[in-house]
Amino acid sequence: MHPISKAIRIRTDQTNEMEHSSPLFLTSSFCFDNAEDMRAAFADETDDNIYSRFSNPSVQEFIDRMVALEGAEAGFATASGMSAIFGSFMALLKKGDHLLSCNAIFGSTHTVITKYLPKFGIEYSYVPADKPEEWEKAIRPNTKMIYVETPTNPGLDLIDLEAVSAIAKKHNLILNVDNCFATPVNQRPIDFGADLVVHSATKWIDGQGRVLGGVIVGKKSLIHDIYLFCRSTGPALSAFNAWVLSKSLETLDVRMERHGNNALQLAKALEGHPKIKWLKYPFLPSHPQHRIALKQMKNGGGIVCFELAGGLQSGRKFLDNLKMLSLTANLGDTKSIASHPASTTHAKLTEEERLAVNITPGLIRISVGLEHADDIIGDIRQALENC
Q1: Under 8 Å CB-to-CB from 42, ≥6 apart: which residues?
Q2: Distance of alpha carbon 89 from alpha carbon 109, whole angstroms
Q3: Strands ordered across the beta sheet of 303-308
Q4: What predicted TM-score, i.e. pTM, was given to this entire model?
Q5: Are 279 and 270 in contact (CB under 8 A)?
Q6: Average pLDDT over every residue of 201-217
Q7: Domain boundary residue among 248, 283, 318?
Q8: Would I find Transferase among this entry's keywords (predicted)?
Q9: DSSP designation for 123
Q10: Where is the domain boundary, 178, 213, 248?
């Protein structure tokens, strides 16, 4: 079956009630028929459920669906996107290892890499996301992992996954890709050579701003190490959140088609606007890495970003004059959202660090929702006229 059909049809085993929609397994622990079965489960001789910090049928259904969509061997779900990213680092890196990352990444990921990994003796270095020729030069003898976002948050830089994968394989490195912005229906990094793929399922995968969740999929041997780390340290995804996220995957493909169509219409409508210095969207021919977008993405996703010509003051006026769009610390919702990365998601970066990844004072990030495209465009245009 097609991965989309497979993901929709994957489910927990039907109970004696013969339910069509998977039930919610809201329990902390699971029972055994006898002492031997319990011993075997704790000895990892069986896959029986023991405790919901380790595994849960509702969580496993979500994982299995994500594995099918991404074309992965295995997966593990966590309580949030950041716990998925942190788990993928800490389970596979040790003191003395070196992490090579693109410089344009989510603000909290930057904090983990620069503030917390060094406390465990893990070194890091950044390379420009838009300069692939510098990647191989930055590899050290102790480099263990390459970490990338594509498209990046919030600047929408694109990284040629095939090219980076070739470098990773040449040097026997783990390629770890944050696929949150694209989602598995728009981009499958494993098809281009990625070893691991991480998601904040809170965003497009949930798609309605309801629950938190994270997931890591990829090679079975790597996922096993991540599972052992997370099983002991406890970033478990709740069964309820997993049940919600699993249901959301059934509509991910059709939602992302609408998000992408709306975003492309918005980008075309705003490109060249006198109040906008520049605008980026992966499926616009003007995007610097448009060729890469066409090669590895099904559509451009649901994020549009632009720089207001008037800088910080114009940015504040623009946000304050929006009538329909929401101002909130999220993205990937059915409702369109506007944010100012320099003062929110990337506020903890220094001004120099922000400018190095094109997070300028007037940068606006639009998470394009499922409203009618005319209403989204109309609200943004009227806000532009008043800023």
Answers
A1: 50
A2: 11
A3: 276-280, 303-308, 363-367, 337-339, 326-327
A4: 0.95
A5: yes
A6: 98
A7: 248
A8: yes
A9: E
A10: 248
